[in-house]
Structures are given as structure tokens and as C-alpha cells.
Amino acid sequence: MKRRDKVEIMADILNACVHGANKTAIVHKANLNFRIVDPYLEFLAQKGLISVHHKGGTSYETTNNGMMLLERFTNIEQTLQE
After folding, report:
1. Which of 40, 53, 63, 66 has the fewest Cβ atoms surrounding its Cβ within 10 A?
2. How large a percentage of the chain has pLDDT more than 90?
3. pTM for this one?
4. Residue 41 to residue 3: CA distance in whole angstroms
5. What residue ranges do the domains of the chain occupy?
């Protein structure tokens, strides 16, 4: 199994948050652990790529800028695999 780099991990987190997700769902969908996910969530939130909602528990959602970045990453990944 190939190790993912930081950009791939961030893309997986953005993908997991597209429809909104709590930390547990992100950990499972992005195949991470709780210790590793926190710095990524903080970084993505600081960059405006995910938004954090505290209503009824904390949830995360990919912003429009995050969606554009995720689309670019997907296009680059597909181009490199051709």
C-alpha cells in the first residue's frame, strides 16, 4: 500500500467534508486517526477551505474554495494517471 502525501490527505479530508461531517466521520472516510486529523482540520480551516460549525457538536464542511481546490487536485491526478 502506497503512503499518501500531505496533499492527498488534505484532498481526502476535503472530499469527506463535502456534505458536512463530524470528526469521527472524517477519520473513517479519510482513513486517518484522531491524532493526525486535528492539524489538518486546523490548517484547512485557517486557509478557508473548510468551515467549522459548532451547532449541536462540531462539524466541518468544504467551502467553495475547498471545492475548487479539490476539483483542481482531481484533474491533476487524472492527467498524471493517463
Report:
1. 53
2. 84
3. 0.91
4. 19
5. 6-73
